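User:
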Amino acid sequence: MIDSAGRRHARFPAWAESRARRAIHAAIAGLQWTQPGATVGLAGGASGGDLLFHECCRELGIDTRILLALPPYEFESASVAPAGPGWVKRFRRLLDMAGPALHIMEKNDGLLEGASDNIWQRANLWMIEEANRLAPERALLALWDGKVGDGPGGTEHFLQVGRSFGIRILPPIEMQMVLRMDDKSG
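Assistant: Predicted structure:
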């Protein structure tokens, strides 16, 4: 997610958005599949990497499914609004265009590792389960700083679960690489 205004240690500052977008776009455009078939992208709708992923897929003509861990209003409040009104507008536009591609996690979804009360951990499991259900060939792309997250259910967990279920893990787009430049021009 894009850092909220009061975040103490920067992980994904707003000024790095265009760099992250370029890296995500390049990773998606460079995907090589070994089997024929349609490509579909799965992602949540959080400010930052999720929304950028959906936008890049749209630019590349790839359909996506939006998998929200919470009902839209609650999800927006928890995972979009802290980044500001511009991200809220983008999230709502994504939902307006989603139609049947919008899926809300049910209480019993995402239990590949067993029951969990952590909504974000369950959402990771649910997303992996959906990928396994939909396609014989899967790839996981993560925008990550390589550090342990703020709690269970973060990117590190997502990568671990994906790997354990045989999903091809693309080299993560590491935020430290995106942020390493001296200038902040984007």
